[in-house]
Design goal:
globular, Arc Repressor Mutant, subunit A, alpha+beta, 279 residues, three-stranded antiparallel sheet, single chain, 9 helices, Beta-Lactamase
Length: 279
């Protein structure tokens, strides 16, 4: 009997466009450009790269990379001084195309406006993408961080309230993979950087239904987050409130803001098809 053939993948299909896949790989190789970074200065951000560095990072031939970089530069997605290449702000157009077709940002913004109006604090919504959270909606009152955050901004998941909420709701195997592969930088003396300590904290978050971060990402910043669920009970996003430690104590944060956040989260989840059995 002949051996059964290996299952086909998308890459084996005649409809698979290799050139498009290569172009996307080159874009992703840059990560966040240092020139347009919204991350705190002590966060690791990808610098501008040479053609050779892009080729090494993607595993593509230099000649192939050269053509793609030239094309991306002509389209305005990359800028170069002849040696170094970096992404431009135009690359955000690709993300906004996703956001404009996704109902969550619009839903979240509507209810976050109510949260901010009631609490007088900035509120946000984010989704988990790899080891980071990506902001998909934000209503700001005070600037509470040393950098400005907006739609598309990325922060590490492990030391942010929204990130912890989403990590706490990962399937066990996905969480194990995250704990093995994520990089845990110490941003302040309060940052939890030990995987086992983080696992314990995530268990607490899962049980209590919210995450509270006390100055782990930046000194003076406290935040509180709760999950957003879609139909089937899957946590698809999180919303939070951020405040200055000088204005709100750690004990006051859940007392004052948790009911407001939970109400907004329940409303957003309901719009996404989640039925709360506790109501």
């Amino acid at each position: 009997m002949p051996k059964p053939s290996a299952p086909l993948t998308f890459a084996d299909s005649p409809d698979f466009v290799v050139s498009l896949a290569r172009g996307l790989a080159i874009i992703k190789a840059f990560g966040v450009s240092s020139g347009d970074s919204v991350a705190p200065s002590n966060m690791r951000v990808a610098d501008a790269m040479t053609l050779s560095e892009v080729a090494e990072k993607t595993g593509l031939a230099r000649a192939v990379v050269r053509r793609f970089l030239y094309t991306l530069a002509e389209l305005g997605y990359i800028t170069t001084d002849g040696k170094y290449f970096r992404l431009t702000a135009k690359i955000l157009d690709l993300g906004f195309a996703y956001l404009s077709s996704f109902s969550l940002p619009k839903l979240a913004e509507r209810f976050l406006e109510e949260v901010t109006l009631e609490t007088k604090e900035s509120s946000s919504a984010s989704v988990l993408d790899g080891h980071e959270i990506v902001y998909v909606a934000r209503v700001q009152t005070h600037r509470i961080m040393s950098v400005s955050l907006g739609i598309g901004s990325r922060l590490p998941a492990f030391c942010t309230s929204m990130g912890r909420v989403l990590l706490a709701h990962l399937p066990p195997e996905a969480l194990e993979q995250y704990l093995k592969t994520a990089k845990f930088d110490r941003f302040t003396e309060k940052t939890i950087v030990e995987p086992e300590a983080l696992r314990k904290e995530l268990n607490t978050v899962a049980k209590q239904g919210f995450a509270l971060i006390d100055q782990e990402l930046e000194i003076g910043l406290r935040s509180l987050a709760v999950p957003i669920f879609a139909g089937g009970g899957k946590a698809v996003a999180a919303i939070n409130i951020g405040t200055q430690a000088a204005r709100t104590t750690k004990a006051q944060l859940p007392q004052q803001f948790l009911p407001v956040l939970r109400k907004a989260a329940k409303n957003i989840s309901s719009c996404l098809g989640h039925l709360d059995d506790r109501s």
